[in-house]
From TrEMBL:
Organism: Bacillus timonensis
Cross-referenced InterPro entries: Aldolase_TIM, ComA_synth, ComA_synth_sf
Coiled coil: none
Protein name: Phosphosulfolactate synthase
UniProt xrefs under Pfam families: ComA
């Protein structure tokens, strides 16, 4: 079908309008079925938490993602585990051997000082495209609004391709409160003076995805999307769901 007036979507190798899925152990056969049908709607695949370390068919999975032009990378929890055990050199060497070209630098579980993260980013960006993450997985830990803005600016200035705003796979921490509602004051603050095209908002539920689509338009970057929700998300992006039905007037212009 190609006869409706729908919001313009970025296509191909997008620099924004990104959908980043979270892979928590999708079987290869099922993954290939999803990618065969929906790869045009997926840009990045995070092999979630530390699951990459115990995935028996990891190389096959990475190759499959790359076959369908989806960028694979490992979740920040694995990075933090390697940091704590002082195994970052072994970690980055393993990523290179696997053909993974992106790395996440986070501090969602471990409180890694900002200056230390910036130093790691400086080293890693020689060999990888770097994604950083801001925010804690601890529901009881609140960062001041000014600190969110300060960290994001420094991380982007250090050469990160994108900064992820923490939301967990449950959507109950970081930019969300414990019942899954968006901290709207925080989102308004960090989007006021920061290019939202450089932010990936973790939004694991359709309700959260719809908030960001209505707030920032069709081509907002969204992460921690479940692979079985990819088609629903694309439907939402194109104003083909009730909650985003009148999206057209908020559409961002394509370059």
């Amino acid at each position: 079908m190609d006869f409706l007036d729908v919001p313009l979507r970025t296509k191909g190798e997008r620099s924004y309008g990104i959908t980043s899925i979270a892979d928590f152990g999708t079987p290869i056969a099922l993954l290939e079925a999803y990618l065969r049908d929906y790869h045009a709607y997926i840009d990045i695949a995070k092999i979630g938490i530390g699951s990459a370390y115990v995935t028996p068919n990891l190389q096959e999975k990475i190759n499959l993602y790359k076959k369908y032009k989806v960028i694979p990378y490992c979740g920040g929890t694995l990075f933090e585990k390697c940091y704590v055990q002082e195994k970052l050199d072994e970690y980055t060497e393993s990523l290179q051997k696997l053909g993974i070209e992106w790395i996440e630098i986070s501090n969602g579980t471990v409180d890694i000082p900002l200056h230390k993260r910036l130093s790691i980013i400086k080293k890693c960006k020689k060999h990888f495209n770097v994604i950083a993450e801001v925010g804690s997985k601890d529901q009881d830990k609140e960062m001041p609004l000014s600190e969110w803005e300060y960290e994001i600016n420094l991380l982007l200035g250090a050469g990160c391709k994108y900064v992820i705003t923490e939301g967990r796979d449950s959507g109950t921490a970081g930019i969300y409160n414990s019942n899954g509602n968006v901290n709207t004051e925080l989102i308004e603050r960090i989007s006021k003076d920061i290019d939202v095209n450089k932010l990936i908002f973790e939004a694991p539920t359709p309700k959260q995805q719809m908030f960001f689509i209505n707030q920032f338009g069709t081509n907002v970057n969204l992460g921690n999307v479940k692979i079985n929700d990819v088609l629903v998300l694309e439907t939402q992006r194109l104003g083909l769901r009730s909650e985003t039905f009148f999206l057209g007037e908020k559409t961002w212009n394509l370059p």
